[in-house]
């Protein structure tokens, strides 16, 4: 229950932070349920996103494998890839049935494989189709239906292109736009190059917020420090962090206090506490689902980045020769190595 401010002339109530104030981006092959569980030990409030899941994978594949998650992962969003309104509507209903907090449509991925499936960034050329998709999804679920998109395609940097896209999609019922502040080059650049080569233009996201003040605008792309995020939050409602959150996860340990004004998680008081929680999680996953600790530990490798002994710590948790050992035995081996070095 929030505490009421004293009824004085000088008391000014501040608005609660947007639920999208800090988000961890959907990253293919990275933000699986184990990665999200790990990130949740560092921040209770950050909004977590699944990897992009295609409608075909959900409608014709193993639903549980794609949609299972731990209760602690809330708030959590399912990102979908697709362009058929009826299929997206069915998948939006699945997201609701499985307990997700949001369903997000990918209109930003530039990979050739995604283009062959006629979705991702190439959908920005078909705003009427995207509007039909959003309408079908919002009719199918009470969850927020959001869109992640780029600010332009190829060499076209005309602001009117993205402004009109956002305007048409908003009329279909979308109220939250996650704006990757780079153009997507559909030809000539790889997905990796598309994350680095097109210049960042944060001013476009800020201008969208000015033109659509009633919408929630979240900026994504290239943000690596708290100061950089703070600067963007002066202009827009939220920030989505991708690679930096994955490679430098300890940054998340201060997000709740800095960005949300809430206590940071107990596990975020030390890297050792996070590691201990993840070892317990590995043991539970092994017992309940037969999951190897090795497939979980890969997400932790940046936890001690910049600290003495970080290299040896990474090498041990990523050593395939230790896969036969229980996770706790690997942890104990690391503690023994640390003790030996500290007493030399």
From TrEMBL:
The catalytic activity of this protein is classed by the Enzyme Commission as 1.3.1.91
Q: Which InterPro entries match?
A: Aldolase_TIM, DUS-like_FMN-bd, DUS_fam, DusA, tRNA_hU_synthase_CS
- Cite the active-site annotation: 109
* Recorded catalytic activity of this chain's protein: 5,6-dihydrouridine(20) in tRNA + NADP(+) = uridine(20) in tRNA + NADPH + H(+); 5,6-dihydrouridine(20) in tRNA + NAD(+) = uridine(20) in tRNA + NADH + H(+); 5,6-dihydrouridine(20a) in tRNA + NAD(+) = uridine(20a) in tRNA + NADH + H(+); 5,6-dihydrouridine(20a) in tRNA + NADP(+) = uridine(20a) in tRNA + NADPH + H(+)
Residues flagged as site, Interacts with tRNA: 106, 192, 195, 311, 314
Please name the CDD domains in this protein's record: DUS_like_FMN
Domain DUS-like FMN-binding intervals = 24-325
Q: Which cofactor does it need?
A: FMN
**Taxonomic superkingdom:** Bacteria
Name the positions where FMN binds. Answer: 26-28, 79, 148, 180, 220-222, 242-243
Q: Which leading EC class covers this enzyme?
A: oxidoreductase
Give any Pfam family that matches.
Dus
Q: Which UniProt keywords apply?
A: Flavoprotein, FMN, NADP, Nucleotide-binding, Oxidoreductase, RNA-binding, tRNA processing, tRNA-binding
Which PROSITE patterns would you find in this protein's record?
UPF0034
Concerning SUPFAM superfamilies, the annotation shows: FMN-linked oxidoreductases
- Which purpose does this protein serve, as stated in its record? Catalyzes the synthesis of 5,6-dihydrouridine (D), a modified base found in the D-loop of most tRNAs, via the reduction of the C5-C6 double bond in target uridines. Specifically modifies U20 and U20a in tRNAs.
* Family in the record: Belongs to the Dus family. DusA subfamily.
State the name under which the record lists this protein.
tRNA-dihydrouridine(20/20a) synthase
């Amino acid at each position: 229950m929030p505490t009421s401010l004293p009824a004085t002339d000088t008391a000014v109530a501040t608005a609660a932070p947007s639920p999208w104030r800090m988000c961890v981006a959907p990253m293919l092959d990275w933000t699986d349920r184990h990665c999200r569980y790990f990130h949740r030990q560092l921040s209770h409030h950050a909004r977590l996103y699944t990897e992009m899941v295609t409608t075909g994978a959900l409608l014709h594949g193993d639903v549980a494998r794609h949609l299972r998650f731990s209760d602690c992962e809330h708030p959590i969003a399912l990102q979908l890839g697709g362009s058929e309104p009826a299929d997206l509507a069915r998948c939006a209903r699945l997201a609701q049935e499985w307990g997700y907090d949001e369903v997000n449509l990918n209109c930003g991925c530039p990979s050739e494989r995604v283009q062959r499936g006629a979705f991702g960034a190439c959908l920005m050329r078909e705003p009427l189709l995207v509007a039909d998709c959003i309408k079908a999804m919002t009719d199918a679920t009470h969850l927020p239906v959001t869109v992640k998109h780029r600010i332009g395609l190829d060499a076209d940097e005309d602001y009117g292109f993205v402004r009109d896209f956002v305007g048409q999609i908003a009329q279909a019922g979308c109220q939250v736009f996650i704006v990757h502040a780079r153009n997507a080059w559909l030809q000539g650049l790889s997905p990796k190059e598309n994350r680095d080569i097109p210049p960042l233009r944060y001013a476009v996201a800020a201008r969208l917020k000015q033109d659509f003040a009633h919408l929630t605008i979240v900026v994504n792309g290239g943000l690596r420090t708290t100061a950089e995020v703070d600067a963007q939050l002066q202009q827009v409602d939220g920030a989505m962090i991708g690679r930096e959150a994955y490679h430098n996860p300890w940054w998340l340990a201060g997000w709740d206090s800095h960005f949300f004004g809430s206590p940071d998680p107990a596990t975020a008081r030390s890297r050792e506490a996070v590691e201990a929680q993840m070892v317990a999680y590995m043991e539970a996953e092994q017992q309940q689902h037969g999951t190897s600790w090795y497939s979980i530990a890969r997400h932790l490798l940046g936890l001690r980045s910049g600290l003495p002994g970080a290299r040896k710590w990474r090498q041990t948790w990523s050593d395939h020769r230790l896969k036969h050992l229980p996770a706790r035995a690997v942890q104990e081996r690391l503690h023994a190595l640390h003790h030996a070095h500290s007493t030399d």
